[in-house]
Amino acid sequence: MAAGVLAAAVALPAVGGAGVSAKSAVGALDLKPEELTEPPLSERTKLVDADGKQIAQFYFENRQSVSLDKVAPIMQKALIAIEDFRFYKHGPIDIEGTARALIKNLTTGGVTQGGSSITQQYVKQVLVNAAETDEERAAATATTVSRKLNELRHAMAIEQKYTKNQILERYLNIAYFGAGAHGIQAAARRFFDKPASELTLAESATLAGAVQNPARTDPNVGPKSRALLLERRNVVLDRMYEVGVITRAEADEAKQKKLGWKDVEMPGGCEESKYPYFCLYVQNEILLNEDFGKTAEERLKLLQRGGLTIKTTIDPKMQKAAEKAIKKYVSPKDKPVAAQAMIVPGTGEIKAMAASRTFGNSKKKNEMSYNLVADAAHGGGRGFQQGSTAKVYTLTTALAEGMKFGDGFPSPDGYRASGYSTFKDCKGNGVGDPSHTVNNSSEGGGGFKTLESGTWGSVNTFFMKLQQDVGLCDTVKTAKKMGLKRADGGKIGEFETFTLGINEVDPVTVANTYATLGARGKHCKPLAITEVKDRNGKVTRFKPKCEQVLDEEVADAVSAILSGVFTKGTMSGVGGIGRDAAGKTGTTDNYTAAWFAGYTPNLSSAVSIGDPRGAFSHNLIGVTIGGRYYSYVYGASISGPIWKESMIAALKGVEAAKFHPVDQARFGGCSDKCAPKPKEKDPRDRDFDDLRDLFDPDRGDRGDRGGRGRGGDVADRDWGNWNETGLVPAE
After folding, report:
1. How far is it, in rounded angstroms, from Cα 181 to Cα 173?
2. If you ran DSSP here, which 8-state letter would residue 198 be given?
3. What is the pLDDT of residues 253-288, one digit of tens each?
4. What is the SS3 assignment for 326-374?
5. Under 8 Å between Cβ of 571 and 585
C-alpha cells in the first residue's frame, strides 16, 4: 500500500495528460472507472388543495431539486471559483489540487487536506446520502487514503457519464448549505426568501462559502456563526476576483452589504399546516395504503423523501366556512371541543375538516395532539358516542323492509325488552336486557308515533320498538353498508341500544354515512387524495370507490322524512338552510356528547361536540361554551347552528340540487301498523282504565313487557290518540 501511495504522489501530476507516467500511475493505483450507484435524492413532498395551492410539506431533508438553468449564473460562478476554479478545464481529477493534498496527507499520516474536485465532492455526497447504516456512513466520510482512491474511481465514471454542466447541476442539488437547507433552491429560500434563479452576487458568494463547513457557518445557530459566514462570504468574493469572475469594484461593493439572512422557516409536518387535521388524515392515508409501498417503512420514506406532489380534495372555501362557524360558537379555550367534517355525496371527497382547538402539543395553550375529526387509523382518538344520529340507520332499514311513512307504534315514556331474546346480534346471541329501561329524552315525548313523527321528535322508545321490529342485525348491517365503523377501529357494538347511538364514532365517518343518503344510496369511501405526481412528472390519479348499497327510492324516502326535522322536529328552532336539506340531531344519554348530521344532494356534514378529557366524567350539563352558559347541550344547541351556518357559507354559489320525489305509492300512507282510529265516544265519558292510562302513561309499557305482539297495549294507543289529537298537551 505504501508503494502504491508513493507512486500516486509521484505520478499524479501527470494524470489526465499523455505519456507513460500517467499510465503507470493509473496502473499502480488501479485507477479504473467504477460505476457509482446514485439513489434518488431525498426530495420534499408537498400537499396541495383542490385548487393546487400548497397546504403542507413533508421532508427528511428540505430539498427541491432544480435544473441548472434555474440557478443564477453568478451562483454557478461563485461555487466554481471557491471550490474548483479549473472545473471546466480538468478531467475527473483536479491534478494540482489532488497532488498537493496527497503529498500533504503523506507527511501527516492521514487525510488532512482536501483538494477534491466538484466531481469528487459530488461522489462523496452521493455515498453519504446512500448510507443506510452507521458503518456505511462512517466509511463514506472516513479520513483514509483508500476512501479517497475509491472516490477517484467513481469520479472517473461520473465524468464519462455526464457533461460538466450535468455534474454541476447534480452537485448544487445535493450539497448541504446549513440551516436545514439541502440543495441550492432550498438554501436560497431559507437564507434569502427567493428562488435560486434570483440570487445576487453577495448572496451567491454567501451560499458558495457555506458548503465548505455548513455546521460552522450555520446562520441559524447564532450571531457568532453568522459572523463566520460573513467572513467566509468575503473570502469567496476575493477568490472570484482573483480568478477573474468579477472586478475588484464589484467585490468591494458586495463586501459592504449585510449578510441578509432572512431566516425563512421551512416548516414540515402537519403541525405547521394550515389545515392540520386534514393533513393528518392525508398523511395516514399514505402510511396505511400499500399503493405507496409494501411496508410502513417504505411508505414513510416515500412520503418524506419521494418528492411527490399530492393533490387533495380539501376546498379552501368550505374549510373556511367550517372554521368560521365553529369559532362563532366554541372557543379554543373551552374544554369541550367541536369538530366538523364535510364530504361530497357520490364521490366521498372530503372538503373540510375543522375543529375548535388548535393542533399541537401545548397543554398550556389547550392544544390537541391528535385528530379530533377522524378515526384512530387517521391519527384520531376514540371519538364520541353517536347518539340519536344513529337512528337514521334504523329508519332506513324500516323503509327498506316495506314500512310506510304512516306506520308506527305506541311509544310510552319508558321501554324495556320483553326478554333477552328480544334483540339478537348478527351471531344470533340474545342481547335484550329486560332489566334496563330506555326513557325518552325531553326532546321526544311519548304517544303513538309514526316513522315521520317518531323521527322528527327523536323518540327513543319509538326507535327501540322500531329496531325490535326490523331486527337489530338488519339495522347493524344497514349501518355498515352506509359506512359506519367505530372510531377506535374495534368491532361495532351490537346491543339493543344500537339505534340510540352507543358506538363511539368520528365526524368523517358520520358525515360519510349520511352522504350515502345524499347520493341516493351510493356509498363512497372517504377520499382525500385525487392525484399523485412523482419527481419525474408521472401522474397517478385516484378515483372514487363507490357502491350502490341502498335502493335509490329508499334513500329518497329517508331524505323526505329527515327534511321534516328542520320544520317539524328537533331542529325547527334553528331552521333550514334555504335549499333541500335533511338531517338528524343527536343527543347522547346523560348529555355526554351532542351531534348534528345532515346533507343536501351537494354536500354532507357532521358536527360533534364533547369533552376529550372523558365524555362520561365531563358531560355537557351546566357548562359554559363559547362564553355562553348551557344547562344542557342538545344536538340543536351548538352542533345544529354550526352545521347550518357552515353549510350556508360552504354552498354559497353552488347551484342548489333537489331531492328526488318520493314514490308515494310505495311509501305513502300506512300498512298494518297504522295509528288506531279514535273511539266514537266523548273523551269525557272515558272509563276508569282509560283515565288511568292518561295519568299513568308508563302503565302501557309495563303491560307490554309480556310481549303481547307488535302493536303493544291498547291502553298505549288510547294515550297516543289523545296526545295526537291535541286533547292532551303533547310532550
Report:
1. 10
2. G
3. 999 999 999 999 888 889 889 999 999 999 999 999
4. HHHHCCCCCCCEEEEEEECCCCCEEEEEEECCCECCCCCCCCECCECCC
5. yes
